[in-house]
Hints:
Blueprint: H1 11-41
Amino acid sequence: MPSDSSPPSRSGLIAFAWLWVGTPLAYGLYELVRKATQLFTG
Length: 42
């Protein structure tokens, strides 16, 4: 077995994981800012 072989690329999986976590996080932050402005501005 050659020792210079690199592991398979997982950039697609990493991008999917970031989207899986980042989308609900971004939506939650958006809702937080929206409701906080309603709270403080009336």
